[in-house]
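I had to read the description of the data format several times before I understood it. In essence, backbone conformation is discretised, so a fold becomes a row of integers matching the chain in length. I therefore recommend that a typical entry be quoted early in the introduction. For illustration, here is how one protein appears when written out as sequence plus structure tokens.

***
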Amino acid sequence: MKNLSVVSEFILLGIPHTEGLETMLLVLFLSFYIFTLMGNLLILLAIVSSTRLHTPMYFFLCKLSIFDIFFPSVSSPKMLCYLSGNSRAISYAGCASQLFFYHFLGCTECFLYTVMAYDRFVAICHPLRYTVIMSHRACVILAMGTSFFGCIQATFLTTLTFQLPYCGPNEVDYYFCDIPVMLKLACADTSALEMVGFISVGLMPLSCFLLVLTSYSRIVFSILQIHSAEGRRHAFSTCSAHLTAILLFYLPVVLIYLRPTPSPWLDATVQILNNLVTPMLNPLIYSLRNKEVKSSLRRVLHQLGFLPEQL
């Protein structure tokens, strides 16, 4: 389809109803962003440096940490740039890239959480067959599959959004380019596309969530069959971290994309939680409940000179 757009750039208006709070938001979001990068880099170093953590569960956690570094990097640098007083303009190609990479990374994480739930299901419900089912080859295929299907979903959503003509106005009433706010600027009827987008964006995370729910229903049933109290405690401890991270990921998606009447201010608040706060909390969630990760983190921090030798 021929692109009829005449808009060459868009203006990001930022978070609604936050005029005059730019300096405070800059400090707050910059702090979140730095802690997100540092926390996930430490998790990566802890996993890579410890041979005890070279297992399927930590392989997927390693990929999650990588994506938690890139996911907030899609929108945060530009947001921090204009909060510091620089231009709010973003090129047409830059806007399309933001939307693509946001949904590529987000969809991949969604699939990745589903794979991680399957990994826990196999580990707890079929422990004797775990190493056979979750072989190195299977883990690589699953990891590549999450990115492949994430790319397909993001390509579909980006094409759906930017095949529309944009002939003015060009002010995006948000802090980055996302589907709902971009459709409002299109010079064409978007009702059919809104429905297709709603089904696509809503169906994918809902399907993944139902698969996760099924896995954990089986997991809970299996854990309750464990006779050892220590065994039950260890199994629940391992799974509770994953469940916490899943809830923090899926709740914002439901609130943003599956509500019938959008609220720009609420959407922005929830999306910042999803973009910055959740990736920042994931290293804490996975390390505080895991003795092996904490032990490896102590060694990494000691080698970097942040902890005294006795720790």
Remarks:
- Residues 9-304 form a domain with the Rhopdopsin 7-helix transmembrane proteins fold (CATH 1.20.1070.10).
